[in-house]
Design a protein that fits this description.
single chain, about 90 residues, mainly alpha, 4 helices
Length: about 90
């Protein structure tokens, strides 16, 4: 349930770019894949590795969000500059 709420928080992020959405979607999909693998019967060592992988993916989601917010705040996001220059060149 918390994964769904955290992923829905992406909708509230200001100035989200296609790259942010793509990376976020890939991390969430990988996390769901790990959860599906964790639901299968296996050894405790495999379960430990899967839980560790899930923790790393969760931390990557948080770092991605914080990095994006920091770059947008300083208005130095290369993704944002690229999308702006593309729009300006079409005029």
């Amino acid at each position: 349930m918390l994964w769904v709420l955290g992923s829905a928080a992406l909708l509230a992020v200001p100035d989200r770019s296609w790259a942010l959405v793509l990376c976020w979607t890939a991390l969430v999909a990988a996390s769901v894949g790990v959860l599906v693998a964790l639901a299968q019967p296996s050894t405790h060592r495999r379960d430990e590795r899967l839980v560790s992988a899930l923790a790393v993916l969760g931390r990557a989601l948080v770092v991605l969000l914080l990095l994006h917010l920091a770059l947008v705040q300083q208005a130095s996001s290369p993704l944002r500059a690229t999308s702006t220059s593309t729009c300006d060149s079409s005029r």
